[in-house]
TrEMBL record:
General function of this protein: Required for the efficient initiation of filament assembly.
Gene3D superfamilies: FlgN-like
Keyword Cell membrane belongs to the record: no
Pfam family for this entry, one: FlgN
InterPro entries assigned: FlgN-like (IPR007809), FlgN-like_sf (IPR036679)
Presence of the UniProt keyword Protease in the record: no
Keyword terms, alphabetized: Bacterial flagellum biogenesis, Cell projection, Cilium, Flagellum
Similarity comment: family membership: Belongs to the FlgN family.
Coiled coil: none
Lineage: Bacteria, Pseudomonadati, Pseudomonadota, Betaproteobacteria, Burkholderiales
Name of this chain's protein: Flagellar protein FlgN
GO biological process, any: bacterial-type flagellum assembly
Length: 155
């Protein structure tokens, strides 16, 4: 039977890697480096999937041992069956998880700021103010954003 603390070293390793990727992501967000972000995303997804699988295994082991099958079950299990190494591994994983959550929050704010900036630029392109007679073209070649034309009457 697998013990609930058996997955903690692998979870710690993957969470450490995820935190490092999120720090890189933050640098790419600040630099507006879309190519860098695109390279990180698949690795982040893989790590999150691995972490979810390891967590499910730990929850299953907690359930088999008669404890809650969630994060809340670890403390009672540690109190009843854990040793100092298991407690230390769990505490370390919780600290890394808190760091990842904070990085995720900050990165989300950076993404929102960049999206707002992009929307402002797009709006400026759609409604030119400096050239009342200018025309912009859409993806299919149609015109939009032009001011009313001036027609002269001859005669």
């Amino acid at each position: 039977m697998t013990r609930p603390h058996a997955t903690l070293p692998a979870e710690h390793e993957r969470m450490t890697a995820l935190v490092e990727l999120m720090k890189q992501e933050q640098q790419f967000l600040v630099a507006a480096d879309a190519d860098g972000l695109a390279g990180i995303t698949p690795r982040k997804v893989a790590l999150v999937q691995e972490l979810a699988q390891l967590s499910r295994e730990r929850h299953g082991a907690l359930g088999n041992a008669g404890f809650l099958t969630s994060e809340a079950g670890m403390e009672p299990w540690l109190a009843a069956h854990g040793d100092e190494a298991a407690r230390s591994a769990w505490t370390g994983l919780l600290a890394l998880t808190a760091e990842a959550k904070e990085l995720n929050r900050v990165n989300g704010m950076l993404i929102n700021r960049q999206m707002a900036h992009n929307q402002t630029v797009l709006n400026a392109l759609r409604t030119p103010t400096a050239a009342p007679e200018s025309t912009l073209y859409g993806a299919k070649g149609q015109t939009f954003g032009s001011a009313p034309s001036r027609r002269f009457v001859v005669g």
